[in-house]
């Protein structure tokens, strides 16, 4: 019975190396972000203008808000590719109810939040209590939601939304645009929940070892369910912010958001194997993705090539994670 | 732990026999029953359903998806998944047709190109999923984006129409009473069946999917088998691209959209388990027919394409749910 | 006589950090012999088997096969030399047919790449007949077979690979009585075919039935090798336990109070058949039994991890519903699992996170806000109390030694102030010094008025340590010993008596 040996990484040297690599893994991405910024700035000097940087931040808000929720989901060993579709569907349902259904703005907002809640719950319930693989569940809900977007909105594009939306979209809190402020609040709250609350602990425990979590009295299914509900709600919030900022709804909203969000979270240090990761890393990941997107636009890269690059980034992110995991395992 | 595993199987074997017997019967023959049931329902709902014309139509429309489903089956049996197959269909076509149109290459080169592109895409997927140890779902999600991006970049959003005679022949010709494309698909099923049940590779594929650890111990090169399963999938996707291009007599940028869903759903409905190690060609054939019948009926009943997406998503959801439940209770 | 020795191990020693697993062990196996290996857990059986199987290398000593010195550097080497293992966890492929399973390592080919099914079926038929499965169709899928039949297919595969030495490790734990008889019949036939068999088991009556000779290991040393028809069970047991241990009666020094925990009529399929027990305050109830007896299942069921078909649980005279671990913890029950790595610890998280894991709410305010400083304080207190060897409580648990990891698990449950403790193999995989510490801690827990169920497959441990002992066999209570009436020997006999 020497199972212990597999668990022991006894020597002092091994410990030091491990701590060193932990630091490298955790803070290395800050370095990457810095290097990236300088590289882009060198190629395209207009990167460092105030206007560009604020545009960059603004455009990062949609994915950023979602990434907060995605962090929880991935830490708990799940994945959600329906978030982009939720963004579109929430907007479709909410705006259509206002424009066509004549509802007051706050009903529209409630409907938007409701969409994220419901889809998130379906994803979570299927992945936890029904035991279905989350990638296929969310793939299915994504398809259904995208189909419903056009069904609900009748294929129309909506402009000119009620004043309150425009207020939200154009307004500022001091020097900070509303949407950025909302994203920062989302990150702050997400950080607090993940690192400082009971629920956050449960998420980490479930992601590290669901069996141990269960024996220790944690309701594993409920925890997983809640992570999906959370990301659903945050997707709705992102939808609200995006709709307000653009002052429109179009059926193609949210396309590719799932990729960007997952890439941001994984680049930020959250492992697809679960149990590891933090909000700080996700913020950096979101910024890295935003810088890349911004750079592609500045440099004038064809829209057609952007998909290719987006896919390659996700590929790289997953590849890096796989290497990270192998390194940790072999240590 | 050993004690528990043994004890668990002891508990299972004393469950109520008759209930399990019925469940197992349903699980085994459910596919055929479902197909029969659906045909009856749709025949009642639409008078044109059971006409000779429509039945041929069903086969024609499903031929391409059928080939893709065969390919995906190999991957799923080896415990992987490939959601990039639809994108491979489009990419193979754009490169094959494009090379012919712009470089004036002879038709047989373009056919070869289509198949080779399929194989190469499969290789990328397979190599990443085996040697690089990346999760196949995320890998193929990434390659899906990259391939689609390439399609758009190369075609710049436009299609190519009017292909040379060979394609026309392939697309509208007949082998006796059977349209060419259907004949090729049937041939594909035969080849798939032979590969799975009569070759060494097939046995090793089931072994790797059924018990990867034991397979490794018995000296099977697990990485190579996984790689090959993806390559085969790519090849069959290439073949699907070929017959689809021929039937449309064109390349369109959006071709193959949604194929991954239909193919995976068809395989899963046909008894291929998402947990690996299980499945056969006959079942996949039934699954493909079911998907084809549903798609056809939705068209006949003039269901809008957006609701068709909804239906597609729901079908995948139900298929995965049944597969999961079967895994939990079946044995 | 002409040398019939097929396998010979001379002066085999093996050290692991902190423990001597094997100490100059000699072992020889004759052609066509069935040679049993017995000994308590930790006596060195697994290490010896792993060396024979090429999984690990001995530190010193010589291995001879058919008189020639060999190095068994890896399992493939061992297999090439004709050594095959029949493991507990089967290594068959459920969806392939029998024939393919048996010959998967080298399928007969026709044209390149194609399987010659007819030849395969033919080969399979003859091998299946050798193991008494001639009545089965080689085309059947393995998933349709019973555990006993599956095991015979595994044997068939080993024979197909021309194994001359088969090693069985607890082969009958998932077999019915009839399947066991069939297995023995096959083993006897294999003997006639000059196949040699090593039979590792706790079930002494089986060892007596099927083995020609038996080797007893104790504390890494070979005690003796005897012919099974030349020794009584009583003497064999004495050899396994060591003379003093076997005779030492356990004298309980305690008077016990009221009943704290009672389970009545616990039933779960065929695994647990109508189990009832009660434990008084401060009492340690030992739960003994060999592999397959249902002890772990009982522990899991009492804790709400597994669902029971019938049965009641009473705590302090009040009936309670235990449907999940949350229910159990709420009612003051703690469960130390038998595999801390899989179910007891969060390996790459710090000690403090592990210690507070089962009692998180205690450190949370109303809104769920965690008070990290309180957590750390609690963890440090446990570290002091339990003497956990770690520089800080922030160190990742995976860097601790086995004994200290187990203390972390204990610390976790101590935080919950549980009064009923179910402990499954609490001293497994930890060195002797740590074991003593753990015993003391468990005794202390009991002395504070808790009721303890102490599950262990180490009979001497159970005997030494428990106030009362319940012996389980095949899902039933096979024996109950009051304080002062049991010895390790009597427990062992009760645990292994009879086959069906």
What is the fold's blueprint, element by element?
The complex is a heterotrimer of chains A (331), B (331) and C (500).
Chain A: H1 3-7, H2 12-43, H3 50-75, H4 83-99, H5 105-128, H6 134-153, E1 158-159, H7 163-170, E2 172-173, E3 176-177, H8 178-196, H9 198-208, H10 210-215, H11 220-246, E4 248-249, H12 257-267, H13 279-299, H14 303-330
Antiparallel strand pairs in A: 1-4, 2-3
Helix pairs in contact in A: 2-13, 3-8, 3-9, 3-11, 3-12, 3-13, 4-5, 4-6, 4-11, 5-6, 5-11, 7-11, 8-9, 9-11, 12-13, 12-14
Chain B: H1 2-12, H2 17-45, H3 52-77, H4 85-103, H5 107-130, H6 136-155, E1 160-161, H7 165-172, E2 174-175, E3 178-179, H8 180-198, H9 200-210, H10 212-217, H11 222-248, E4 250-251, H12 259-269, H13 281-300, H14 305-329
Antiparallel strand pairs in B: 1-4, 2-3
Chain C: E1 5-16, E2 19-30, E3 34-38, H1 45-52, E4 60-65, E5 68-69, H2 75-80, E6 83-86, H3 98-103, H4 117-130, H5 147-160, E7 165-169, H6 177-192, E8 196-200, H7 204-210, E9 213-218, E10 221-227, H8 233-241, H9 243-247, E11 259-268, E12 272-280, E13 284-288, H10 295-302, E14 310-315, E15 318-320, H11 325-330, E16 333-336, H12 340-344, H13 351-355, H14 372-386, H15 402-414, E17 420-424, H16 432-447, E18 451-455, H17 459-465, E19 468-473, E20 476-481, H18 488-496
Parallel strand pairs in C: 3-8, 3-9, 6-7, 7-8, 13-18, 13-19, 16-17, 17-18
Antiparallel strand pairs in C: 1-2, 1-4, 4-5, 9-10, 11-12, 11-14, 14-15, 19-20
Helix pairs in contact in C: 4-5, 8-18, 14-15, 17-18
How would you portray this structure in words?
- The complex is a heterotrimer of chains A (331), B (331) and C (500).
- Chain A is mainly alpha-helical.
- In chain A, 77% of the residues lie in helices and 2% in strands.
- In chain A, the strands form two sheets. Chain A has a two-stranded antiparallel ribbon with strand order 1-4. A two-stranded antiparallel ribbon of chain A has the order 2-3.
- Chain A is globular.
- In chain A, 54% of the residues are buried.
- With 331 residues, chain B is an all-alpha fold.
- Chain B has a domain of 195 residues.
- Chain B has 14 helices and four strands.
- In chain B, the strands form two sheets. A two-stranded antiparallel ribbon of chain B has the order 1-4.
- In chain B, helix 3 packs across helix 12, helix 7 crosses helix 11 and helix 12 runs parallel beside helix 14.
- Chain C is an alpha/beta fold and 500 residues long.
- Chain C is 34% helix and 25% strand.
- Chain C is built from 18 helices and 20 strands.
- Chain C has a six-stranded mixed β-sheet, with helices on both faces. A six-stranded mixed β-sheet of chain C has the order 16-17-18-13-19-20, sandwiched between helices.
- The chains are: A mainly alpha (331), B mainly alpha (331), C alpha/beta (500).
- At the A-B interface, helix 6 and helix 14 of A face helix 6 and helix 14 of B.
């Amino acid at each position: 019975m020497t199972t212990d040996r597999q668990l022991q990484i006894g020597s002092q040297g091994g410990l030091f190396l491990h701590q060193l690599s932990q630091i490298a893994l955790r803070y290395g991405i800050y370095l990457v972000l810095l290097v990236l910024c300088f590289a882009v700035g060198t190629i395209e000097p207009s990167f460092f203008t105030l206007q560009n940087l604020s545009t960059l931040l603004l455009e990062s808000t949609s994915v950023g808000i979602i990434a907060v929720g995605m962090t929880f989901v991935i830490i708990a060993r799940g994945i959600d590719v329906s978030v982009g579709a939720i963004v579109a569907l929430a907007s479709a349902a909410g705006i259509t109810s206002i424009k066509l259904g004549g509802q007051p703005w706050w009903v529209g907002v409630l409907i938007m939040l409701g969409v994220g809640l419901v889809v998130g719950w379906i994803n979570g319930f299927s992945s936890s209590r029904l035991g279905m693989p989350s990638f296929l569940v969310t793939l299915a809900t994504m398809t259904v939601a995208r189909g419903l977007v056009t069904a609900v909105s009748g294929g129309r594009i909506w402009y000119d939304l009620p004043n309150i939306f425009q207020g939200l979209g154009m307004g500022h809190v001091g020097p900070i645009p509303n949407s950025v402020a909302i994203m920062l609040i989302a990150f702050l709250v997400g950080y607090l929940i993940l690192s400082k609350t009971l629920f956050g602990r449960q998420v980490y425990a479930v992601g590290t070892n669901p069996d141990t979590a269960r024996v220790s009295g944690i309701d594993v299914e409920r925890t997983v369910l809640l992570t999906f509900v959370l990301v659903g709600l945050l997707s709705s919030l992102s939808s609200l912010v995006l709709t307000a900022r653009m002052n429109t709804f179009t059926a193609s909203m949210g396309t590719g958001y799932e990729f960007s969000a997952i890439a941001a979270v994984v680049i930020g240090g959250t492992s697809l194997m679960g149990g590891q990761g933090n909000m700080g890393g996700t913020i950096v990941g979101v910024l890295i993705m935003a810088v890349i997107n911004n750079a592609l636009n500045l440099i004038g890269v064809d829209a057609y090539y952007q998909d290719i690059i987006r896919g390659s980034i996700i590929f790289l992110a997953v590849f890096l994670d796989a290497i990270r995991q192998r390194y940790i395992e072999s240590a | 732990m050993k004690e528990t595993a043994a004890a668990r199987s002891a508990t299972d074997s004393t469950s109520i026999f008759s209930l399990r017997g019925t469940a197992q019967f349903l699980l085994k023959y459910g596919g055929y029953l479902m197909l029969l049931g659906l045909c009856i329902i749709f025949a009642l709902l639409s008078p044109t359903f059971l006409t000779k014309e429509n039945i041929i139509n069903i086969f024609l429309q499903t031929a391409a998806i059928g080939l893709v489903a065969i390919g995906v089956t190999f991957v799923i049996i080896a415990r992987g998944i490939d959601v990039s197959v639809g994108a491979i269909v489009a990419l193979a076509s754009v490169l094959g047709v494009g090379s012919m149109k712009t470089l004036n290459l002879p038709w047989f080169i373009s056919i070869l190109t289509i198949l080779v592109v399929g194989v190469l895409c499969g290789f990328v997927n397979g190599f990443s999923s085996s040697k690089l140890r990346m999760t196949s779902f995320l890998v193929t999600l990434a390659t899906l984006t990259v391939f689609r991006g390439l399609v758009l970049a190369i075609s710049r959003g436009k299609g190519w129409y009017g292909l040379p005679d060979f394609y026309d022949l392939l697309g509208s010709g007949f082998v006796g009473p059977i349209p060419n494309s259907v004949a090729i698909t049937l041939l594909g099923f035969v080849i798939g069946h032979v590969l799975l049940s009569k070759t060494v590779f097939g046995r090793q594929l089931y072994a790797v999917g059924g018990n990867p650890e034991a397979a490794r111990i018995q000296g099977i090169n697990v990485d190579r088998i996984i790689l090959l399963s993806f390559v085969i999938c790519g090849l069959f996707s290439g073949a699907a691209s070929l017959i689809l291009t021929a039937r449309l007599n064109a390349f369109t940028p959006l071709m193959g959209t949604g194929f991954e869903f239909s193919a995976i759903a068809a395989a899963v409905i046909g008894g291929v388990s998402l947990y690996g190690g299980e499945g056969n060609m006959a079942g996949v054939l039934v699954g493909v027919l079911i998907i084809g019948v549903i798609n056809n009926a939705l068209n006949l009943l003039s269901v809008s394409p957006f609701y068709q997406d909804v239906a597609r998503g729901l079908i995948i959801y139900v298929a995965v749910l049944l597969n999961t439940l079967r895994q939990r209770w079946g044995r | 006589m002409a040398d019939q020795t097929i396998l010979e191990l001379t002066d085999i020693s093996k050290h692991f950090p902190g423990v001597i697993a094997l100490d100059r062990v000699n072992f020889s196996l004759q052609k066509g012999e069935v040679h049993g290996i017995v000994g308590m857990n930790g006596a060195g059986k697994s290490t010896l088997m792993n060396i024979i199987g090429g999984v690990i290398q001995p530190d010193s000593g010589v291995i001879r096969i058919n008189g020639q010195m060999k190095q068994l550097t890896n399992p493939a080497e061992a297999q090439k030399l004709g050594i095959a293992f029949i493991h507990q966890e089967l290594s068959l492929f459920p969806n392939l047919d029998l024939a393919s399973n048996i010959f998967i390592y080298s399928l007969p080919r026709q044209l390149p790449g194609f399987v010659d099914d007819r030849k395969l079926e033919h080969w399979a038929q003859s091998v299946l007949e050798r193991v008494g499965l001639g009545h089965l169709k080689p085309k059947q899928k393995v998933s349709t077979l019973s555990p006993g039949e599956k095991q015979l297919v595994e044997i068939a595969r080993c024979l197909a690979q021309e194994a001359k030495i088969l090693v069985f490790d607890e082969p009958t734990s998932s077999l019915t009585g009839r399947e066991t008889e069939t297995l023995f019949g096959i083993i006897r036939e294999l003997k006639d075919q000059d196949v040699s068999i090593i039979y590792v088991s706790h079930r002494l009556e089986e060892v007596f039935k099927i083995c020609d000779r038996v080797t007893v290991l104790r504390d890494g040393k070979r005690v003796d090798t005897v012919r099974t028809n030349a020794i009584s069970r009583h003497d064999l047991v004495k050899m396994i336990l060591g003379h003093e241990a076997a005779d030492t009666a356990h004298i309980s020094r305690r008077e016990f109070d009221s009943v704290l925990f009672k389970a009545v009529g616990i039933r779960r399929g065929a695994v647990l058949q109508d189990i009832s027990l009660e434990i008084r305050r401060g009492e340690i109830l030992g739960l003994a039994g060999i592999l397959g007896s249902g002890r772990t299942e009982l522990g899991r069921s009492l804790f709400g991890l597994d669902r029971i078909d019938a049965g009641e649980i009473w705590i302090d005279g009040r009936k309670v519903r235990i449907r999940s671990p949350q229910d159990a913890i709420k009612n003051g029950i703690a469960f130390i699992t038998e595999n801390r790595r899989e179910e007891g610890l969060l390996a790459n998280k710090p000690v403090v996170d592990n210690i507070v894991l089962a009692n998180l709410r205690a450190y949370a305010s109303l809104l769920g806000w965690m008070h990290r400083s309180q957590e750390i304080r609690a963890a440090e207190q446990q570290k002091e109390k339990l003497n956990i060897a770690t520089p800080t409580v922030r160190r990742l648990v995976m860097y601790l030694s086995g004994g200290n990891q187990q203390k972390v698990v204990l610390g976790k449950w101590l935080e919950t102030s549980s009064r009923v403790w179910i402990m499954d193999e609490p001293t497994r995989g930890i060195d002797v010094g740590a074991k003593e510490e753990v015993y003391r801690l468990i005794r202390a827990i009991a002395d504070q008025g808790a009721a303890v169920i102490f599950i262990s497959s180490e009979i001497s441990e159970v005997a030494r340590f428990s106030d009362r002992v319940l012996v389980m066999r095949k899902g039933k209570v096979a024996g109950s010993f009051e304080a002062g009436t049991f010895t390790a020997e009597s427990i062992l006999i009760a645990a292994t008596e009879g086959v069906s």
